[in-house]
Amino acid sequence: MNFAWNDYSSEYVEKIEVFLDKEAIKYTSCEDGFNNFYTYWYNELGESNFWCKVILIESEPIAVVALAKAPDNVFTIQEFIVSPNHRGKGYGSAILKELLAHSKKIIGQDIFVAKAVIYPDNIASQKAFQKAGFVYTSAHPDGDAWYYQYIKPNIRQLTCEDLKTDFLNGFNHNQTWNKQWVKENNSWVLKDCVMSREWDNEKREWIPTYLLEQINRGGATIGAYVKDKLVGFCSIDGTLHNGYANMTMLFIDDDYKRLGIGKKLFLSISEKAKTIGAEKLFISAIPSQDTITFYMAVGCKDAIYLPNEFLDSPNDRYLELELGKK
Q1: 273, containing H or E segment
Q2: pLDDT tens, 136-191?
Q3: Coil, helix or strand at residue 21
Q4: 318 with 239, same domain?
């Protein structure tokens, strides 16, 4: 760890109040002073659900952060103030990264899910939180606040023991889209549509069996868990064609989309594909605008070679990713 983390106390009251310059007051709820903010929330939530830490470099306070925990174990970063002398130097994102990576040591609790509310014009805070892994999720209806969320999934390769018939119990999947790519005269054209896809019980029981078959052929399934809940999974078949490995599935629970989990799974399965000798990864993707945008953003392009065994639907858009050397 690069910083010292001390509990906020009377020792730091005067030093932290100096942090509240005009800019800090504008973007926080500490217009009556940080100590008043701290006292209110400590009395309101108690020490088991509220933490306030002073971050130091060589005994010099450079920032203060206050966190609250809800009954569902979701943490909220209530206030995060960096000293005026240390702003714009990367300390904000570095402190957040260290807090999230070492929360057990710093506050005695694991942080799997965290939230933050940031003003729309507070660009510096937005960048700091994004660099630390937070993702914009929505805006307040009044437009005066933006909501950010952080998820720390446990990404691991699944075994046959994981793939029971109840593997997808509680996994939310109801996909709808209103724009998709259509092939016309050898070019892809984005068109309006009304499309949806949802798994029935038979499909939910078939998927783990299908994944087991792939594992038995030398493939793999990577899962993402938040605590004990499956929030995403991705798979490859073990059969190669012309140097291509087939990425057969990538799904994220509806409640956990747009939080970076899909990218983490895709990168993990790409690395796994290298270990079975693949030079490229093949994807037969539904042509929805969001799906294709995701794959293009992680480096995919339209496939050059089309292995017949890997084609799911004639309406899919066939993509590939060139894998670097392991």
Answers
A1: helix 261-275
A2: 999 999 889 999 999 989 999 999 999 999 999 999 999 999 999 999 998 999 99
A3: coil
A4: yes
Give residue 268's identity as a one-letter amino acid code.
Answer: S
In the Cβ-directed half-sphere of 94, how many Cα atoms lie within 13 Å? Answer: 16
In a shared domain, residues 147 and 234:
no
Q: Is 210 helix (H, G, I), strand (E, B) or coil?
A: helix
Q: Which of 117, 151, 185 is the last residue of a domain?
A: 151
Cite the DSSP H helix spans in 18-160. Answer: 22-27, 34-45, 91-101, 103-107, 123-131
The domain total for the chain is 2
Provide the domain limits for residue 191.
155-322
186 in the same domain as 173: yes
Would you tell me the crossing angle of helices 91-101 and 123-131 to the nearest 10 degrees? 40
Alpha-helical segments (H) within 132-165: none
165 and 191 assigned to the same domain: yes
The tokens describing 173, both together, are 């999947």
Q: pTM for this one?
A: 0.77
Quick one: 119 exposed, middle or buried, by C-beta within 10 A (0-12, 13-18, 19+)? middle
Q: Is the dihedral of CA 104, 109, 111, 116 positive or negative?
A: negative
Helix H or strand E segment including 272: helix 261-275
> Which strands sit side by side in the sheet containing 229-241, from one edge to the other?
154-157, 220-226, 229-241, 244-252, 280-285, 317-322, 301-302
